[in-house]
Amino acid sequence: MRVAAQSAHHRAKSAQLWLGGLLATTRITALLKWKVSFHATVTADAVAFLIVQIGPWPAVTAPLVPLIG
Predict the structure, then answer these.
(1) CA distances from 65 to 3, 7, 16, 50, 69 (A)
(2) Domain definitions of the chain by residue range
(3) Are 47 and 60 in contact (CB under 8 A)?
(4) Which of 4, 11, 16, 45 qualifies as a FRET site for 34, CA 20 to 30 Å off?
(5) CA 22 to CA 1: how far, in whole Å?
(6) CA dihedral angle for residue 14, residue 19, residue 20, residue 21, rounded to 10 degrees
(7) pLDDT in tens, 21-51
């Protein structure tokens, strides 16, 4: 009886640790995705702002088009 109880406790503890690790990994992944998305948005906004400030001259803005799209 005692061995079965210890085994059940061990399985429960193992599952708890696995679930905790999975949740931590999910949080880290979500944070990294948010950071990448945030930086991409800020970069696109900065490029768009520069294009507006410099003016719509094709010679100046043409090299920037691949960066935006």
Answers:
(1) 68, 62, 50, 12, 6
(2) 2-68
(3) no
(4) 16
(5) 32
(6) 90
(7) 767 777 777 777 877 777 777 787 887 777 7
